[in-house]
Amino acid sequence: MRIGIVGAGSIGLLFAAYLHRVFEVTLYTRTEAQADWINKHGVQLKKGIGPLTAQVNAVPLDKGIGEAELTIIAVKQYQLESILEGLPQGGNYLFLQNGMGHLNALAHLSAENIYVGSVEHGALRENPTTVSHNGAGITRVAVYRGSSELLENFARNVPDFFPIQIAGDYYKMLANKLAANAVINPLTAILGVNNGELVNNKYFEKALEGLFDEVAQILSFTDRTNALTKVKGICRNTAENRSSMLKDLDAGRPTEVDAILGFLVDEAYRKKLKTPMISTYYHLIKGRELASRREMR
């Protein structure tokens, strides 16, 4: 099976490194320099020992996205609009964005099959060719529109140590991941700590529980105890990982706060719910982004 991966950040590199073992992988990069480095040196995967080298074909995005049996979109949600414009019509696509704000855009995409996914691995891109697998987890996927046949074939053939699990309800799957993102990302970003500290520090854990209560209310979770246990489990499984929002703020990059907390702020307004903690963290993250832009001027 020919697999395309759009985006060579931490998740794109991680998927390329594991999937190349069983699939023919083409990795699409933002810059020509990164593509050249990957073609020359491969993707370096660090997990305990290593690095292990994955030889994949890399192509800069400005050369266009070619056809594949399945194309995995592994860019940030705020980068998605320009990517959607360049996708071949009628293809098969798996979207791995955080949050749920991208669902409206996918509704208008011309494609044979559209799948969405939720990645529970901890990964850090150390340089343009190297990714560190800091926390082993699972990737959950579901059909957004179309047939499940291709997705099932893909999940059956991935390496056993990089599992893909198919969920029956895409909305429930994404809502569960959104709950984790909406709690872990802003808390770690503002506190400046790794994921594990949210459950290892009893005071941070109380803040996590309070923020989760507001998220669960908006998403209408019926079993909040189980959902909260899963969020804490992700913190433990990715204990050494720095969240994407924390890394983005430290690097002066835009975050996905609008796709994560912004979506929840809008949902709370629509449902006439009061969510002061979500609103506070949303504005704190937006304030940090603004401060970073001012510093860069």
TrEMBL record:
It catalyses: (R)-pantoate + NADP(+) = 2-dehydropantoate + NADPH + H(+). Gene3D superfamilies: N-(1-d-carboxylethyl)-l-norvaline Dehydrogenase, domain 2, NAD(P)-binding Rossmann-like Domain. It is an enzyme of class 1 (oxidoreductase). It comes from the Bacteria. Residues 3-143 form the Ketopantoate reductase N-terminal domain. Its EC number is 1.1.1.169. GO terms for cellular component: cytoplasm. Keywords: NADP, Oxidoreductase, Pantothenate biosynthesis. One of its GO terms (biological process) is pantothenate biosynthetic process. InterPro entries: 6-PGluconate_DH-like_C_sf, 6PGD_dom2, ApbA, Ketopantoate_reductase, KPA_reductase, KPR_N, NAD(P)-bd_dom_sf. PANTHER family: 2-DEHYDROPANTOATE 2-REDUCTASE, 2-DEHYDROPANTOATE 2-REDUCTASE-RELATED. Catalyzes the NADPH-dependent reduction of ketopantoate into pantoic acid. Belongs to the ketopantoate reductase family. This is 2-dehydropantoate 2-reductase. It comes from Neobacillus notoginsengisoli.
